Every structure is written in structure tokens, then in C-alpha cells.
Amino acid sequence: MKISKNAWDSNLIKSNGKYISVNWESSGGGAFAVIPIEEVGKSPDQVPLFRGHTAVVLDTDFNPFNDRQLVSCSDDGKIAIWEIPENYSFHNGVDDEGEVKDIAPIAKLSGHTKKVGHVQFHPLAENVLASSSMDYTIKLWDIKTGECKITLKHKDLVTSFSFNYDGSKLVSTSRDKKIRVWDIRKGEIISEGPGHTGAKNSRAVWLGNSNRIATTGFDRFSERQLGVWDAENISNGAIGGFYSVDSSSGILMPFFDDSTKLLFIAGKGDGNIRYFEFDEENDELFSLSEFQSVLPQRGFAVAPKRTVNVHENEILRAFKSLNDNSIEPISFIVPRRSELFQDDIYPDAPSNIPALTADEWFAGEEVNGPLLI
Q: What is the pLDDT of residue 42?
């Protein structure tokens, strides 16, 4: 693989369980590649790329309700929407003449005035997309009409954001070291306060169906740390103080699995993936173990829960980039022997059916969470 060497802080790869998208190192504008999960082995000399940006691609995200649709954002300030062709192949992406078939976007969204760094689909409303940009805003789009419906203005660059369980709120972290929780449709800040004091980027992730948020960041001595916050009282500080992780320099990428209450943390530039159990009653994180590897990752992606292998008691399927030239799958498995379905580690998971349309959601309709399977 030719994984992008761009220094922008995103996860570089994303997966929906069927495909992996990879920010690609390419000349002549920006591009990314899409690889079907079952196509393993060395990539061919000529690969089909998704081209359509005039500058480097910074982030991608798959539509949770349409396996063949995804979006990308770029240094050129645009967001592009793509359809993966019906019989798409990464290894055989050439036409009858042997020419590589690059894929063009089906639509573009314009509205940001500077580079767009992160994109994320809404967890339960169809065709709703959030994007953050160097113009200090997060915008919410109806991708069917191409309209920007809501703009959340920040005072500095947004370094990460995450939706809550029912998609009505959003937490954002910013370069001004503040954490903000938004009521999205009112465009108002519910709560804000100082976050990690270190100079490097912090990240936030909502802890499932609760009003708690986990953040990763650095203290002023550049030690890596974790925090758990009450979404309604960010200004009270991290609950019980910060958890110190170690003194490595790479940014920590957090992922939360709501069904097992496990918080996975992958460090950039080191090979370890730590995981903690979140105790909701006491608002505490307990360190369980870590996956250790001497091969560092810069990119990390987690597939949706509905795509794990339940026969092997797999609770998380992840992909990490190695040395910017390959991608390796990692399975987290509960070591049990049983022929029966393990309903304690597999409660109902979010499905691929939207709970609301974009119009319903923007009009203010509420649901308790995604439709489950």
C-alpha cells in the first residue's frame, strides 16, 4: 500500500466491515483507495483510486446505512460523496484495455472556507453528515440535497468530535484546549470547560448510552492521559482526575464498544492497543490488558459491531496500518468454549437501518437511539 504520509491528525483508514478505505499517497490532487475485506495479499502495481479532490484527502467515512456509499474530505475545502461500483475489485480494477478504472465522485458539498479535516456520519439519521474544518466550524449536512443545515462555530481548530448515543448531542475538542458539548439542533453549547493541558491534539468519544465522555490527551509535561467527564458538567473537570497512561509522544485514538463497555485506545507511533472497562456505577475505568506489538500503527479503524464473528466470540474487529505500507486485521476474542450464542457479550447492536430520515431529524424529532438487531 501507499498510505498517505500527510501529517494531519486523522485515523488514515476506516472500515465498515465489508470495505476498508485508505488515504493514499498520490500525485495530482488527492485520492484514496477502497479495498474489499476479502481481497487479501499484495496490492497490484496499478490500483483503482477514488479521485476527485484537487488536494490531499484527509479523512473518509462510510455511510452506516448504505455499505456502498462513503464520503471523503480534503485540503481543498470540499467534501465528496462516492458510490462503490457494483462489482468493484481492488486487485482487478482494470478495463478490457488494461487501463486502470479510477472512480469519480457522484456529488460534492461546498460551504467550508478552509480545509476540511474530519467527517462523520450521524449514528441514526439517514443522509446526515458532520464535518469539521480549519475555518473553526462543525457543519451538519443533508447529503441528499447537498445543503448545510447547521453550523457550530468554535473559537479555534476542532481536533475531534463525537455524537452521543441518540445523535442529539455532540462533543468537540479544540486546539484552545476546551471540551464543548453541543445541543446540535439548537446550535447551543450545553456545557464547556478546560480539557487536557498539553499542546498536542486531544480526542473525545461518547461512552455509549450514557451521559459520560472519555477523552485522550496530554498533560503539560507531555505525558499521555485519559479522562472521563460528565457531559452536563464539563467545567467540573475529569471525574476522579486524569488517568496517566505513559510518556510516549503519539496521539491516542479512542474507540468505545457499548455492548461490552470496553474503551480501546490505539496509540499513534506505537504498536500497543490498550483496553479498559468502564464501570458506569462508579464512573471509573479499569485497565484490563493490552495488545502489544513492536510494529507501530499510524492508522486504526474499527468495524461496526454487526460484522464481528459471533461463533468465535469476537467482540471487536479492528485494522491497523503497518509502516505505511500494509494493513493488518486484529481480532479481540473472549476466550470461551461454547456452542451456544453468548448473549452476555452480544446484546443487541445498532443495525444498518436508519431510525429517522434527514428531514425528520433536522425537524427536531427524537428517538431513544439507533434501531437494534
A: 93
Burial label for 8, CB within 10 Å (0-12, 13-18, 19+), is: middle
**pTM for the predicted model, two decimal places:** 0.95
Rounded percentage of the chain residues whose pLDDT exceeds 90: 92
CA 358 to centroid of chain Cα atoms: 20
Q: How many CB atoms lie within 10 A of CB 299?
A: 24
Question: How many other CB atoms sit within 10 Å of the CB of residue 359?
Answer: 15
pLDDT of 29 reads 82
Task: Tell me the three cell numbers of residue 165.
Answer: 448515543
DSSP percent split of the chain into helix, strand, coil, nearest 5: 5, 45, 50
Other beta carbons within 10 Å of 202: 25
Taking the C-alpha atoms of residue 24 and residue 21, their distance in angstroms, rounded to an integer, is 9
Bridge-based pairing of strands 188-194 and 69-74 is unpaired
Query: Do 301 and 19 touch, CB atoms closer than 8 A?
Result: no
**DSSP helix/strand/coil, 113:** coil
Q: Render pLDDT for 283-334 as a digit per residue (tens, 0 to 9).
A: 999 999 999 999 999 999 999 999 999 999 999 999 999 988 999 999 999 9
Distances (CA, A) of 37 to 42, 107, 209: 13, 25, 29
Residue 72 φ/ψ, nearest 5 degrees: -135, 155
Query: What pLDDT is stored for residue 306 in this prediction?
Result: 93
How, if at all, do strands 252-257 and 262-267 pair?
antiparallel
